[in-house]
């Protein structure tokens, strides 16, 4: 029997007892999130580093950026066969992640590269064409 299916059934029963959102805080412990991602923030730039080992076909991963959201879809498949598994720590499988970015980013200035099992995504802060500075008019109030 699939252990994740058993865990899912067990979780549904616990959700029914404790409430639907009870396990959300434990999600990463029960089933770690893939792919792992690090995000580094600079003044006007973000560097996102995504761990996707064994990627040989770049068409098997989709990366979408929308305003202040990064979406990743694809699969991690090491494709190793043979032998008996003694230890398996490298997470594999289909993934779909949505990450909220710390600020909105430009759609026209995105760079992504893949090297040594890591996807490097460079994003630039969206700075509005309108100035954030507004002139405040001061009025004189006559004393009564």
TrEMBL record:
Residues 28-141 form the SHSP domain. Pfam families: HSP20. Signal peptide: none annotated. CDD domains: ACD_sHsps-like (cd06464). Belongs to the small heat shock protein (HSP20) family. This is HSP20 family protein.
């Amino acid at each position: 029997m699939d252990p994740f299916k058993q865990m899912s059934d067990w979780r549904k029963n616990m959700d029914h007892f404790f409430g639907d959102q009870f396990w959300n805080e434990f999600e990463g412990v029960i089933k770690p999130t893939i792919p792992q991602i690090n995000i580094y923030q600079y003044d006007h730039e973000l560097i996102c580093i995504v761990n996707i080992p064994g990627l040989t076909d770049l068409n098997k991963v989709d990366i979408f950026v929308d305003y202040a959201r990064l979406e990743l879809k694809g699969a991690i498949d090491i494709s190793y066969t043979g032998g008996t598994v003694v230890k398996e720590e490298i997470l594999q499988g289909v993934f779909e992640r949505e990450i909220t970015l710390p600020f909105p980013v430009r759609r026209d200035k995105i760079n992504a590269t893949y090297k040594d099992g890591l996807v490097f995504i460079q994003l630039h802060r969206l700075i509005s064409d309108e100035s954030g500075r507004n002139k405040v008019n001061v009025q004189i109030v006559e004393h009564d």
